[in-house]
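Entry — protein

Goal — fold tokens:
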Amino acid sequence: ECPNKLDGPGSGEKIRNEKVRLLEAMPPVTIDEVFLGQYEGYTDDETITNKDSNCPTFAIIRCFINNPRWAGVPIIFKAGKALNERKAEMRVQFKPAPAAETLFGGVEVPRNELVMKLQPGESIYLKSNIKTPGFSSTPIQSELEVKYDTRYLAKCSSCNPDAYSRLILDVLRGRSANFVRSDELIRAWEIFTPVLHQIDEENIRPHSYKVGSRGPDKADKFFAEKSGYLRNDAYIWEDGNICRRTTPAEQDSSDAILKAAFDKFAASDKMDMQGFVGAA
């Protein structure tokens, strides 16, 4: 929940109080809500003495927050090492729009999604649907975006300080909001410690995955089943001025639609093409 004060005297404790309240509303994680992975070659490292180690290097965990605002909403944590990309972000996918497929003749309409990217390149963008450019009315997903680098930092001499610089400055200023309080730490461990002990005691084996991949092969299925998240594979996010390229097949289809409409118009005995063009 949002505290009633975010800055100024006393705000740090109010923020930390709300963080503890949220954790107290989270039940302990159970093993059926956990998916573990380990990249191939992890135990080849000479510093790993236990060559049969089940230490995970990839994890997906589903949690719930049992309060009036978030009850029933799955909260998914996903993290890993040796993956295909390095990033830190938070995504909120909204429910599908009612009767959206009926409005667009049975075409599947992607869900809207709010993305807050922390690394690399801080940005916030809302994935929404617009009309496909050209002659088609099919909805296509694009984004409304704010990028810190281009919006705030590109044309000024200031910079966006890294996280540790801000934390050190908070220490000097006596601000406590960004630091973990002891009761918050204890409650966080109460949520995760039981399942961590179970993994060790039962020697639960992680799924193997290749270095440079998106993770274990079964990870996406587990993620989809536990979260209800639908990935839009047709969406392409571009770090530039375009969000999606028109493929040659789509261009051919667009040309064919225009030609068919023109031929039908020209062949109609109710239309005077010469008069129509002259009037234009």
Remarks:
- The radius of gyration is 26 Å.
- The mean pLDDT is 83.
